[in-house]
Amino acid sequence: MTLSPKDGEMVILDRTRGLVHQLNGIASFIWERCNGQCTPSEIAAQLCQIFEVNEQDASRDVVAAIEQLQKLSL
Fold it and tell me: Which range marks the domain in which residue 46 is found?
C-alpha cells in the first residue's frame, strides 16, 4: 500500500486489489492513530480537541471509521 497526504486528506493505494481509497481529514486523522498505541476512546478525545466536535459524535466517527477501514482490509 502507498500513502500520500494532501491537505489533511490521504490517498491509500491498495496495489494488491488495484483500488484507491481517499480519506477525508477526519478519517486520515483516525487512520494515523490506528497504530496500536491509542485506544478508540483516546482517538475520540483527540478528535474533540482538534476538530471541536462533541464526545458522542467523535466516538461515533471513530468507531465508524475503524469499522470501514477493517471492512476494506486496510
Answer: 2-71
CA distance 56 to 15: 35
Provide the whole-model pTM. 0.81
pLDDT in tens, 13-70: 888 899 999 999 889 999 999 999 999 999 999 999 988 889 999 999 999 999 999 9
Q: Which residues contact 37 (CB under 8 A, 6 or more apart)?
A: none
> How many domains does one find in the chain?
1
- Taking each helix axis from N to C terminus, what angle separates 55-71 and 40-51, rounded to the nearest 10 degrees? 120
